[in-house]
Specification:
The chain is of the alpha/beta class. The protein has two domains: 152 residues, 3-Layer(aba) Sandwich (Rossmann fold); 70 residues. 36% of the residues are buried. The two termini are 42 Å apart. It has a five-stranded parallel beta sheet with strand order 4-5-6-3-7, sandwiched between helices. It has a two-stranded antiparallel ribbon with strand order 1-2. The longest helix is centred in the C-terminal third of the chain and has 17 residues. Helix 12 crosses helix 13.
Length: 308
């Protein structure tokens, strides 16, 4: 590939290895959560930031780096989140690549964050934040930063940067790239070269709306994806229970009103429901005693913009 250092030349994998179906599992494993909705915590989520340190912030509007738009909301272990967790756990145990894709607002990032929080603490998680259509030096800098390497001093030293990344890929861990659809095919091939190195022990979690279409334009990398997982919208039968676990204000709502709002506007999109919850929370704060009914839902849904 043009612009890639000779340090990234990798040996061709023997056919006997490619045909070997035996998976050699590491000594650690991941426990997937129950696919049944989890019991709601008594206190609002206060964790903020999507970094590797897992530090606790002070924002009541996020949970584990996930934007929830309203104080007192909680990430809910939906059926969709459980299946994503199982897919990611299996792929990481096999030291492979997983692509998590689906429409915007269906909870890909939420599910990936929750799955990665279940990993043993000794398995480091590195998150690379990429720009839109990054050139190779920009992608290299994002990867260096995710591993805590000095990107500023290495970005323009191609050989040294490549050697540092290859060494980082030798360690057991997980590299997460959200919004992978931002990366063009030539730069995705750089990821493939890193992953193909014989000494690589790093697993890759690639997420994004349209990620499957992006990877299709990089067939060499796509052929190495062990697990493809599509995150679907919430089913109608999930809506009432999930919303009441998501925020206590929905405890007073009747199922029919919630299902009506979902059919007319939210359409199973969890991000849309988070916005509806935020506006409903604000309305109830301004006018205490307001009924949580279809009239309230119609009013707050009008704040979401034109109907698509």
């Amino acid at each position: 590939m043009r612009g890639v250092s000779l340090a990234l030349l990798v040996l061709a994998t023997p056919a006997s290895i490619l045909l070997d179906t035996t998976v050699r599992w590491p000594s650690w494993h991941c426990r997937a959560p129950s696919t049944r909705p989890a019991r709601r915590s008594r206190t609002p989520a206060l964790e903020d930031g999507a970094g590797n340190t897992g530090t606790v912030g002070t924002s009541p509007f996020t949970d584990g780096g996930v934007r929830l738009y309203v104080s007192g909301a909680h990430v809910v272990s939906t059926r969709q989140l459980g299946t994503v967790t199982e897919a990611i756990a299996h792929t990481i145990a096999a030291r492979g690549i997983v692509c998590v894709y689906g429409d915007t607002g269906h909870g890909k990032t939420v599910a990936a964050h929750q799955a990665l929080r279940l990993l043993p603490r000794r398995v480091p998680v590195h998150r690379a934040v990429v720009a839109v259509k990054p050139a190779l030096p920009q992608l290299r800098a994002a990867l260096l930063t995710s591993f805590g390497l000095p990107a500023a001093s290495l970005t323009n030293r191609t050989d040294a940067a490549d050697r540092a990344l290859l060494q980082s890929f030798q360690t057991l861990g997980v590299l997460v790239i959200d919004d992978v659809q931002r990366i063009a095919a030539p730069e995705l091939d750089y990821l493939r070269l890193l992953f193909d190195a014989p000494t690589t022990r790093m697993s890759l979690v690639l997420c994004g709306a349209g990620a499957e279409r992006t990877l299709a334009r990089a067939p060499a990398l796509a052929s190495r994806v062990l697990t493809w997982h599509q995150v679907n919208r919430l089913d109608a039968d999930q809506i009432p229970g999930v919303l009441r676990l998501f925020h206590p204000l929905w405890d007073a709502a009747v199922d029919a009103d919630l299902l009506h709002a979902d059919a007319k506007r939210a359409k199973g999109n969890f991000r849309t429901w988070a916005k509806i919850t935020s506006h409903a929370y604000a309305t109830l704060a301004r006018t205490p005693g307001t009924a949580v009914d279809q009239a309230l839902l119609s009013g707050v849904c009008s704040r979401l913009g034109p109907t698509p």
